[in-house]
User: What shape does this take?
Amino acid sequence: MTDCPCGSGKTFEACCGPYLSGAAPAPTAEALMRSRYSAFAVKNVDYLHDTLLPETRHDFNREHVTDWANNSEWMGLEVRSTEAGGPQDEEGVVEFVARFRVQGKDYVHHETSTFKKQDGVWYYVDGIMGQRPRTAPKVGRNDPCPCGSGKKYKKCCGAAA
Assistant: This one.
């Protein structure tokens, strides 16, 4: 038994294996994202295609994806955050960092992905590269501190330690 490439700490057979084999659908957006990472690691390009939202498959470049999977050594996956995407949800967002190596050079793929459930099955919709976009307004140095102290941010939570 081997560890699952997705880094869950479970064996492949107890984690992503059933999803990649078609024995079971991924129950959450995060599980689908993890299984897609594992699909790259085990070079299952058909799974990567089949887990794309059907109306977005038109621009799937099988040759490019196959080349990326075959010529990369997948080094690890870190899930940074999830928003919705549970078994009862219809949409979800997962921010992750995937590390891989190509020709001895290390790379980082940082993405915030959106997922959608159709007919009870989760699909990858699209992703935004880089750090997750800010959802709260930026606090300026001279703005009131958001902690509610009444002090300026620079004299409160923004003070250098």
Remarks:
- The CA atoms of residues 67 and 100 lie 13 Å apart.
- The chain has a mean pLDDT of 91.
- The longest strand covers residues 105-118.
- The radius of gyration is 19 Å.
